[in-house]
Amino acid sequence: MSEKPRRTAEDEGDRREPEPAPARRSWHVIGLLALGASAAGFFTGIAKEARTVPGRPADDPAAIAPTPGYSDLRTTRRGPNARLYAKAFDRFEDKLPKTTDVVPPQTAEERARVLEARGALRAYDGAPPIIPHAVAGSSTTECLTCHEKGAVVAGRRAPAMSHERFESCTQCHAAASGPPSPPPPPLTQSTFVGASPVASGERAWKGAPPTIPHATRMRGQCGSCHGVAGALGMRSTHPWRESCTQCHTPSAALDGRASTLPPVGGAAPAARGAAP
Fold first, then answer.
1. Are the beta carbons of 157 and 93 closer than 8 angstroms?
2. In angstroms, rounded to a whole number, what is the distance separating the alpha carbons of residues 116 and 113?
């Protein structure tokens, strides 16, 4: 007798009936719905407007201030009164006229009074002025508090420096009064006579800008006398113009410079190093 062939699981699986058509369609519908929901969420996400974060302007001190170190934190004043003294000195500058303010009319008498008061503080024209008040002389900061930009203190005008910053003010500016000391020995007799101030500069024609009637060495900051911190009689009507020597020419004679221009109606001077 021949044995019947055995049926395997694969043979049984091949004979399974396929799933009905409605069940297959339901899986297709579920897949399409999931795909549609994903697409809708994706496009909704990319279409949403980004939230705008407010930024700080570049001039905001909190935005540009560097992080202080530990040594700075120990020595720096903090809190609402950190700039208490600085703000007090700022009020001195607030009393000065503004650059765009209209300058009141000035007279020749006012100019003469300014020159007389200016000469009373100097040994001669061009000499450094004395300090008309008591000073401790311990730091340059004491002088710069009022004289760096100019100020008005107790109704008195403190002019700005006419030169760049130096670290020893009392080396040239002697104090008019100081701590008690023995009287100095009498000065040696001298026949030196200092120069006298010039009232005003010359003009090439009526209406032309005047020349500078004094030396310009150590007096390059014209706003010291002619700016908003200057006294009436010396004030400029256009302090906002920064290049003064573009119109007001300095004097070669007062500056101690040899002239390179030929005399009027004469021959030109010989060049340096040229044979006679």
1. no
2. 5
Any long-range contacts for 95-100 (C-beta under 8 Å, 24+ apart)?
A: 95/151, 95/152, 96/150, 96/151, 96/152, 96/228, 96/229, 97/228, 98/228, 99/228, 99/239, 99/240, 100/240
Q: Provide the token pair at 31.
A: 């897949």
CB 124 within 8 A of CB 195: yes
Q: What is the pLDDT of residues 32-88, one digit of tens each?
A: 888 888 888 887 777 766 667 676 666 666 556 677 788 777 777 777 777 666 666
> Domain spans of the chain?
83-176+209-256
Distance CA 77, CA 90 (A): 17
CA dist 95 and 40 (Å) reads 68
Sign of CA pseudo-dihedral 250, 203, 120, 177 = negative
Collapsing DSSP to helix, strand or coil, 126 comes out as: coil
Sign of the alpha-carbon torsion through 215, 110, 236, 223 = positive
Q: Are 254 and 125 in contact (CB under 8 A)?
A: no
CB atoms within 10 A of CB 211: 17
CB 169 within 8 A of CB 161: no
Residue 147 CB contacts under 8 Å (≥ 6 apart), including other chains: 158, 159, 160, 161
